[in-house]
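Q: I'm teaching a short session on how sequence maps to structure, and I want students to see two examples side by side rather than one. Could you give me a first protein with its sequence written out and its structure tokens following it? Keep the formatting plain so it prints cleanly on a handout.
A: Of course. Example one:
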Amino acid sequence: MLFDTFDRTGNAEFQFHKQVVFRAVCAAVDSLKGMNIENRDELASRVDVKTGMSAFSWGEKVSISITGNGADAAVVSVQSGAKTIFGSATTHGKNRENVKQIIQRTSELLAQHASEWQKEMGLKSQAPMQNSTGQATQSIADEISKLAVLRDQGLLSPEEFNGQKARLLGNT
């Protein structure tokens, strides 16, 4: 095949129940400029998104699925591809940016609202392990691992990865 239609993908695991992550994904897409939810299927844990035309693209189609990974974890898989038959030749990196924005905004919303949403949904949350100073030790290592995955997928530059890692370790 000369061109892909889905030429950018990204995955991220979040330590929250699948329903909470689904809500965060929908809220993330709703908050991102130029993205519109075309289909939202909570039962299938799937969201289909369309983006408008821009100076860099004829528009993209984005498919997002959320898969449970145990009782308190979910994996978000995002695929973004051009609407045109020319695929990646016409996107100028916009697909990669779509994937990055959706995952990053979902993470931000979960950090801000997950506890509240879990309570609203009647779900029990698990607290991260604490060290003697009261800091979450497991979550820092988990966050660095997640950032490494995003870097390896090309969604974060090495500079962005190092900056975020330094911030998490308190070296900024």
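Q: Perfect. Now a second example for contrast.
A: Example two:
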Amino acid sequence: MAGPLMPMAPRTARFSLRKFTSGDVGLYHQLTGNVRVMQFVTGRPFTWEETAEKFERILARSAQHEHEGVYAIHDSGTDEFVGAAALLREPTGRVELGYRILDTHWGRGIATEVAAELLRFGLHVLHAPAVVAYVDAENTASIRVLEKIGMRRVATTSEGGCTEHEYLLG
């Protein structure tokens, strides 16, 4: 007898996540072209060309694994695009959790809700030995999200004038 089917993608009560497809580059650019969203990622928004190049790499990596990759986050009630989330396996076997939420949707608990589901999905569906997240040391909102879902800071590194914390659970 076959076992239960593995869910296709993480999902929460309020948000559905689906892997980005080739027609979604415009959605992705809503994030990467936004100076507030990118403040703690690259320090500046991407150009359309930079977004398109990065997006092609995202699609290629996501195609390699059925349940790992970069997901578009949509409001389940309205189907409105609100951000992106990622579950990416590292060479160590750990799964990296990541998210970016459009600034017009900040303060609604989206990052916490989605990050908690990514953590659960990584540990219990992907069977990762641990889930890791990396965050700019000045991004206090994301630090609060990671701590709220039970992750703990295990390392801090500085390179090129940027200090980054590593958070881990598992």
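Q: What should students look for in example two?
A: Point them to this: The longest strand covers residues 81-89. Also worth mentioning: Residues 123 and 130 are 7 Å apart (CA to CA).
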